[in-house]
Amino acid sequence: MFNFSYKTQRYLILFGFLTIPVVLSLTFSYYPAISLLYYSLTDWTGLGWDMNFIGLDNYVEIFTKPEVFSTLKNNLYYLGGGLVQVVFALYFAVILTGKLKGRNGFRVALFLPYVLHSVATVIMFKNVYHMEYGSLNTLLGALGLDSWQQSWLGDKRIVNFALAFISMWKYMGLNMVIFIGALQSIPGDLYEAASIDGASGWQKFRYITLPSIRGVLELMLILTLTGALEAFDIPFVMMLGANDTSTFVIHTVNTAFKYQNFGLASAMAVVLLIMVLLFIVIQRKLLFREGRSE
Amino acid sequence: MKRERSIAMTIFNYFTLAVALFVVFFPIYSIAVGAFKTQVEYYQSGLALPDNFFNLENFKRVIDIGDLGLGFRNILIILAISVAGNIVLGTMVAYAVGRFDFKLKKAIMGMYLVAQVIPMVTTQVATFSVIQSLGAYNTMLAPILLYLGADVLQIVIYLQFVNSIPKDLDESAMIEGASLFKIYRSIIFPLLAPATATLIILKSISIYNDFYTPYLYMPKQDLKVVSTAIYSFIGPNAAQLNVISAGILIIFIPTVVLFLFMQRYIFAGVTNGAVK
């Protein structure tokens, strides 16, 4: 190709450099999303390629049988945990952006859980939550708080909190570091000017910090929301969704691969996809509305 | 008065940090000490330090029975191929999109953006049938294909770098008669190195951590990766908390080491991605 004119080379580069990535994206993102729509209208079992078109029957089943949507209530625990975690992340980001000795060490330490292997982390918590020999109950016993000891994974009222906590434990540091990045891009003289005007720490946070990181904050909330809807790993690895910990995605995966009902599972995936897209559109709309009024 | 308040604030901040550190490190501490204990010791000694830090019996057992060696070997192969391919494809897209104007440019960027919005986990049911019809089911090709494609974050980070490389460099190379491919290979690709370092680390961590893909697409025994190996190990061995602790510790080590040495790159990538 070295003797071609730059014009020809340009075509060759564009064609050669973009074909594979575009094909990959079409094959593994777009085609599945579209075929999902089609499968959701069939009774495909996932075995072989026989399938009959059954119209909206799968959707009717989803919206009439309560057990599908009842799993969504378990996703709420992850949403709640996610919101609490965003608050903590923001708090630690603010104090670790200020003048504080050892702040870099603290950042590294609090971020650490995010890089730990996810399955191993869940299994680690399985050891921590173990009823008789788990380190949490051992610690409570050693502190004389025997009455606080719980069957963390056995008690239906507690288990989902225990699982959502793992997610908080893992992602708090990530969100904190993202907030730190946003906080550092706020010009320092804004705070100096506010100090001269006699603003308190809280006022500075309320009127300078919060408005400046609004975009990141909104992004974080939408990620928390979609992340909660898509919660899967933690309850699956820990409990296989047993003991009333099944989330919407676990239910979908089981419907497809355990109960061999790909059609119904596809319809459930489409419903989830629509919910996620809906939240994203709502967030975008809110963003644009703000943009226009400013 | 004001000074006292700010001292009180500082004390409060350190106190909350201490609590956070305790919450982060308590679970890690408990498996780190547990990993060196014998089974009887584990059940009797609570949170105390192990009697013997040279008791490596648990590590031997988990590597042996838990197929961790196989898991590490397989994930390394998958990582090497998919990360290398991913970086090559990502830089190529960034070069093509960043340096040339063409009709489909907007469409391609839009394509990456929308693909990001489609949650992978929801479309798995359909992706599964694609993988099956490609004959990639139960082979290493399945995860490699799925990890290969660039995501929008990667393209955005690369594009920033490409745009910051002066076009004069390309032009003077062209005056000397360099081909466009040579410009990509000898100018653009090397100058993207800092972004590449960040992306290699982030991508490696996310692939190493991924459970879903290998679990769904490679159930075969000898294709176990670290995630699926430890997952199937806990099934029948649920009682042996000390051996499981050793396994967890081994699996934690690679990404922790990577993180401690490459913090700068990881933090840069994480912040860069979100602020955009």
TrEMBL record, chain A:
Membrane topology, record value: Multi-pass membrane protein
Keyword Cell membrane: yes
Domain of life: Bacteria
InterPro entries: ABC_transporter_permease, MetI-like, MetI-like_sf
Keyword Nucleus attached: no
Protein localization: Cell membrane
Signal peptide extent: none
PROSITE patterns: ABC_TM1
Ranges of residues in domain ABC transmembrane type-1: 71-283
Residues passing through the membrane, by range: 12-31, 76-96, 108-129, 158-183, 216-242, 262-282
Chief subcellular location: membrane
CDD domains in alphabetical order: TM_PBP2
Keyword set, alphabetical order: Cell membrane, Membrane, Sugar transport, Transmembrane, Transmembrane helix, Transport
One Pfam family it belongs to: BPD_transp_1
UniProt-listed SUPFAM superfamilies: MetI-like
Family: Belongs to the binding-protein-dependent transport system permease family.
UniProt-recorded name of the protein: Multiple sugar transport system permease protein
Lineage: Bacteria, Bacillati, Bacillota, Bacilli, Bacillales
UniProtKB/TrEMBL annotation, chain B:
Name of the protein described by the UniProt record: Multiple sugar transport system permease protein
Domain ABC transmembrane type-1: 72-262
Keyword Mitochondrion: no
Keyword Membrane belongs to the record: yes
Organism lineage: Bacteria, Bacillati, Bacillota, Bacilli, Bacillales
SUPFAM superfamilies according to UniProt: MetI-like
Domain of life per record: Bacteria
Compartmental location: Cell membrane
CDD domains: TM_PBP2
Keywords: Cell membrane, Membrane, Sugar transport, Transmembrane, Transmembrane helix, Transport
Membrane association type: Multi-pass membrane protein
A Pfam family reported for this protein in Swiss-Prot or TrEMBL: BPD_transp_1
Residues spanning the membrane: 12-36, 75-98, 110-134, 140-162, 183-208, 241-261
Family that this chain belongs to: Belongs to the binding-protein-dependent transport system permease family.
